[in-house]
Amino acid sequence: MIMYNVCYDSGSSAELFHAQVVRHYDLPAVSMRSTIYPELLAGRIRNEEITPDNLHPNDAGHELVASVITCGLEQIRAEMDRGAAEGTDAKLPAPLTRNAYEDSVRLRNMNACVVACEGFTPDPQKQEHITEIFRCGWTAKEKGSRIVFRVEGSCIGVQYRKTIQLPAPVAEVILDGDAEHAQILDANFDETWGDKLVLDTILDHGEPGEHFVEIRLKETHPDDRLPFYLVSVIASGRD
């Protein structure tokens, strides 16, 4: 079952795009835009009663969302009961899109193919719990430090740490030596709730095969609180 959320101040939603998947696979769906949002437009519910930021529900908002989901699930159960009685044999259609991420490998310091390394140091700490997200990667703090990976795939991503302990280093990632189109990996996080594990896409549905991913520190500061932390490189879509 698909659940469509909505921005309660504007009515904006990704429902139009996700509906393509719903129609193709004949999936059941429930929509907050067609159930809860009209109640706000009619003035029977005020935004501040159900959401603190016009998107995420508070306790009262969760109760409303749960009621919509429950109603949808009851309809699904009724339809399933009718289908079982009639002997329905449902089959999935052909995939709507190719699953480029089906064959993915997360490369960390115990399994990556590093072809060059200057100034990046492997983190020796083992990850004991799922919440220890900054483990088994590499750190660097000197400007010009670089590390190069050889990977295989058609989709490539890089995970790194954004920190609230400012200032923080700024790195760049270069794919296959194309420095002109380098992407910035800025470790400065303009929030207060804590450090964030970021995943940036470097290559999306590109040429399959061997690629080289270079990450180097572009900017550092004398008072950097923490080094740049490279968590992993993820390669998908290997043939």
Notes on the structure:
There is one protein chain. The strands form 3 sheets. Strands 3, 5, 6, 8, 11 and 13 form a 6-stranded antiparallel beta sheet that branches. The chain has 2 domains: 2-86, no CATH class; 104-236, Jelly Rolls (Sandwich). The radius of gyration is 23 Å and the shape is globular. The relative contact order is 0.15. Helix 1 (15-25) links the parallel strand 1 and strand 2. 20% of the residues lie in helices and 30% in strands. With 239 residues, it is an alpha+beta fold.
Supply database-style keywords:
239 residues, alpha+beta, Jelly Rolls, 5-stranded antiparallel β-sheet, 4 helices, 13 strands, 30% strand
The whole-angstrom Rg is 23 Å
Q: Helix content range of the residues, please?
A: 10-25%
**Runs with pLDDT <50, length 5+?**
none
For the termini, the CA-CA separation is 32 Å
Tally of DSSP helical segments:
4
In the CATH scheme, the class of the largest domain would be Mainly Beta
On the 0 to 100 scale, the average pLDDT is 93
The name of the CATH architecture of the largest domain is Sandwich
Order of helices and strands: EHEHHHEEEEEEEEEEE
Main beta-sheet strand count, sense and barrel state: 6 strands, antiparallel
Overall structural class, as computed from helix and strand content, comes to alpha+beta
What percentage of amino acids are in beta strands? 25-35%
Count of discrete domains? 2
